Amino acid sequence: MTKPFATVLEASTSLNNKTGSWRTKRPEYVQSASPCNVVCPAGEDIRLWLALVKAGKFYEAWKIITKDNPFPAAMGRICYHTCEKICNRESFDGAVNISAIERSIGDMAIDQAWGFENVTVNSGKNVLVVGGGPSGLAAAYFLRMLGHDVTVYENHLKAGGMMRYGVPRYRLSRCVLDAEIKRIENIGVKIVCQKKITDINAEIDDFDAIYLAMGAHKASQTGVEIKNKPNIIDAVDLFKKVEDDFTNFLNLGNRVFVYGGGNTAIDAARTALRLGASVKIIYRRTIHQMPAHTAEVNEALAEGIEILCLRTISCIDGSKVFVNKMNYDEEYDILTPSGKTEILHADSVIFAIGQSVDVNVLHGAKNIKISEKGTIEIDKNMTTGIPSVFAGGDVVSEKRTVTNAIGHAKKAAGCIDAYLRNTTPPLDIRSEVTNLKKLNVAYFKKSAKITAPEWQNISFEERNISYSKKELMTEASRCFSCGSCFHCDNCYGYCPDNAITKRANGDLEINYNYCKGCGICATECPCGAIKMVSND
Amino acid sequence: MSSSTLSGESSKKNSTIQSRRSRNNSLTSGHRACQGCGEALGARCAIDAAYHAAAGKITVVNATGCLEVFSCSFPENAWNVPWLHSLFGNAAAVATGVAAALHSQGKEDVRVIAQGGDGATGDIGMGCLSGMFDRNDDVLYICYDNQAYMNTGVQRSGTTPPLARTATTVPHKNYAGSDPQTGKNVAQIAMAHEIPYVATASIGNIQDLEKKVSKAINIRGSKYVHVHVPCPLGWGYDTAETIKIARLAIQCGLFPLFEAEYGKLARSTAIEDPISIEDYLKPQKRFAHLFGKNASSESLDILRKIANSNIEKYRLGKTADD
To answer: Would the pTM count as exceeding 0.80?
Structure first.
């Protein structure tokens, strides 16, 4: 120390003093999972593609969506968007309208004829997918992208499975569905329609691997007594008839009852309504206990469909429908017959009390086990009792949604690929979820979500809710980016010790030489992308 | 309160100087301020803003206090701008001299800043400061208010809020913290001098702080900016909460953000998302005795009255045309 007291000191000489030694805790940049990603059965990286939409990079966003889901336009319409229910923005000012954005991006891809990249690798392996529904088609897509030759056998007139024969066209336009299926065919997936397999054993030798995704198209049986040839149709048959012979309107008569309380019952009722009938749904429990999604129940009610709750059908005799009224004890959750019966009149009755898997095709394959619930049993790698045969979608799960089917397809494709290449299947790693507590919402302005317009008319036409490009960017910008840095620079600007370096490309780096570990950066990070950890 | 992030996201309008790579870092790393120091951050933000607005031609005179001690421990210096320290109470007078010297050399483009803590400003240096205002000397005085003498061990200052615990105002069973004294509202004292510009700012709103300093530095005559800078050590809260505490002070009305020109209130920042004073006071240990089992609601009423009076006086409530 040669300097005299009271003198001139050179600028920034404090840099010699490495205050980082004071630290007991240390901030680290982390990227943790967003709730939407964790709950999405298909595992879409929603946060990432929303950021791309926000930046106006629509094609790039579409590329990211289709890494996990080859049907953005279809899924944007019919998925039950669990992502929105868990969105951290929900309690702030309403969830980000993820489904509408996905749908709009999907529609944009169809309009602009975006296609998947051509497959350049070739494994020389041959995979059979049984069933051309969402799970089968998605698996075919994922497997083809991994370089395998894929053939899909579909026993209906057209591919699409429940997206075509379960979801009515007013919810999913067939042009959209056809376009998204065509795109999968364009990368070399062979789809053979009206091909019914009678014995799976016959196919095992011809293919290196098989993915069973036949879905659950068999209507469940009821205990209803039937006399004098009433007009009865199962919901699955109704959908099939309406779909395959759309121009020839099915006549169900004027008074139509639908028996059941699930989404299928609602779709059947709304289909019957569109065929000109006046429709009543008969359901044995209360309206709040209906397994159908509340939004769909409300839409059905808004269209004028009546729901008769706490009733079971005991007998259908010609046009007479004998209905038993039920009592429901809310306190003990017990349903008992009241003993009261009423006689109603219907021209047609549609049964929508559930579907099961048609397991006849598997009779020859003794090693494939069927559970008590009638689903195919698989292990954690989606494999059945036969090593080369895998299964997914509605045939293995009671949770029958299209997104779930796609999620199964993605996982199964990974497992099938590993089996074909003799490697280990990819692990299901999911990091810590970024919940609301980890965010600092002081930095977000309240902005109401851009909602879809109200239901307009009752027809088979689907409503148009696609966003404009500007609306897309505005709605996507509402994403909190939970768990991932979006370069707001709060950490850089608020550090009292100037211990964060900002690179030319905007990337941030903590300079541990000077970071005292106060934690301001972590507290002021809006999206929970900085974590304080012990300095040891 | 929904404040904008420092980058301002898509709107360039809200982008701060602090979010830029090109910021001067006037107070750089290696200083000896405590972890989570609000004053260190406030000083860097304010001086960077002045540096930017005056195209780098600034000189700073610093009073004794935390800021001086932690930024300039012999033989090291954390400043990246011409900087001068003399005594505790004379920063305003020294700055006046610096301004006069620059004026006599014809260097009118070099802008002069005097800065200090609340003790140096409101108590010890009050005479020199008042004289500077009286003469309308061409100096921007910035006070970093952490509401006590933190450097020497948290003794009460003229800006310590009523009822806050300090080393010299210890709560007693008959006596809740510091006396509910009037304290000194230094911004109001400055306004009473009818100088060209007086403003209050906070590190809880960096956009606003930068805007006010940038504006003040290029006004000729005496300017005063009073910056609220929470102190984790003296106030008793976690070091990570500094910005949050500053933000809560604004939201509850206890720290009003306003600008005054020639003694008259010119503009104020309406509170966007009001909170109760309890939300601000509770996280701080210096107010813990107001919430204990012996606490009386009258004590809180004293502070509530101040917040309400601020909201009325500085028009912080949202009006219909906001």
So the answer is: yes
